[in-house]
Amino acid sequence: MPLIAPSILAADFANLQRDVEMLNRSSADYIHVDIMDGRFVPNISFGIPVCAAVKRHATKPLDVHLMIVEPDRYLEDFREAGADILTVHFEACPNLHRTLQHIKELGALASVAINPHTPVVSLSEVLGEVSQVLIMSVNPGFGGQSFIENTYRKVRELVELRADAGVNFDIEVDGGVNGENSPLLIDAGADVLVAGSFVFKSDDPMATIMALKGPVIE
Ligand code: DX5
Ligand code: ZN
Q1: Cα separation of 88 and 188, whole Å?
Q2: Which residue segments constitute the domains of the chain, with CATH numbers given?
Q3: Closest ligand to the CA of 6
Q4: Which of 100, 134, 152, 209 is the most buried (most CB within 10 A)?
């Protein structure tokens, strides 16, 4: 069964505590926190104080996705604000190996994300350094975009690279995930599914989270 990480980017920001408490009661595994700076991506979401506020109410690990330039400047702040998993973008890190070491030194799980145009093989030299690789299935910056189909192939390639390297990390897919593509992503080898709009815009978010995990086997 995959892990599910609902993205609070699609939550009601005026009722964030209520929505986080709903996720606490749900079968979600992580709470996905999208940080956008208006520079790495053409949109601004929220920052460190909001992350800390979510942490005060969350009973599940915070999966913090930094869509920001120069993430090294803020790793400590986000760790203090409660990040359990810290994801930086390959495209934003000229010294990625050092950045990943820094995340681990801070006591968080290190994760790296790649944009749709970045081939998975770009990560081959750091696969032993990470707990998670995030494959973007939309161009980062906005919720509610449509899923890019070649993500399935990228997941499969990464499953192979992981086996060849003899290392272990989770493969997370983020962007446009819904009930149609989730079974195909699970089949391709995805370990963690992020979903924003599909969860929060549904009539019954808790049931939607459960459904994303796949059919219940009795
Ligand atoms: C996109 C973010 C995603 C986003 C997913 O830049 O990284 O985590 O919240 O939202 P949906 O599921 O609506 O595509
Ligand atoms: Zn994200």
Answers
A1: 23
A2: 3-212 (3.20.20.70)
A3: 1
A4: 134
Residue of 90, 73, 62 whose CA lies nearest to 5: 62
Which residue among 19, 29, 174, 191 is the active-site one?
174
pTM above 0.85, yes or no: yes
First to last CA, the chain: 13
Give the tens place of pLDDT for each residue, 45-92: 999 999 999 999 999 999 999 999 999 999 999 999 999 999 999 999
CB 209 within 8 Å of CB 32: no
Cβ contact 190:2 at 8 Å: yes
The pair of three-digit structure tokens given for residue 104, joined into one six-digit string: 């681990």
Give yes or no for residue 10 CB within 6 A of ligand 1.
yes
Give the phi and the psi of residue 139 in degrees, each rounded to 5.
-75, 125
Identify whether the C-beta of residue 50 lies closer than 8 Å to the C-beta of residue 73: no
Tell me: the pLDDT tens digits for 158-201?
A: 999 999 999 999 999 999 999 999 999 999 999 999 999 999 99
The catalytic position among 34, 37, 63, 170 is: 34
CA distance 35 to 43: 10
**Closest atom of ligand 1 relative to the 197 alpha carbon:** 13
Q: Which atom, in ligand 1's list, is nearest to the CA of 140? A: 6
